[in-house]
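Lab manual, section 2.4: Encoding a predicted structure.

Procedure: take the sequence of the chain (105 residues), apply the prediction step described in section 2.3, and record the output as structure tokens. A sample record is shown.
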Amino acid sequence: MHAPLAPAVLASVLASVFALAASVPFPAAAAPILVARAPDGTSITLTDEVGPCEGAAKKAVWTSPDAKRKVVGCYVLTDRGAFVSFLDADRMDIPLQVLAKPTGA
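Recorded output:
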């Protein structure tokens, strides 16, 4: 069994860990490039971030009407629209005419 760390040593170790964590740059949030909104308030945001995606695919985020639930996915944009596959195994095709620039962009 290990002896407990003295409070001063523990405080020093924790201060070092927090200082190191604060110095690590975190990537900025993904910029939304297009959004599809349903009449019920559900939205799908297409970003310019790679996220968990492979190849040419980029990160998509489905958001529930109350914004309490989000599901990440990947999309590829074509001349017909966005082909999206979500990590919960749902999949959809979004026609170009449904996609719009996000508010404030």
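Check your result against the sample. The CA atoms of residues 62 and 81 lie 16 Å apart.
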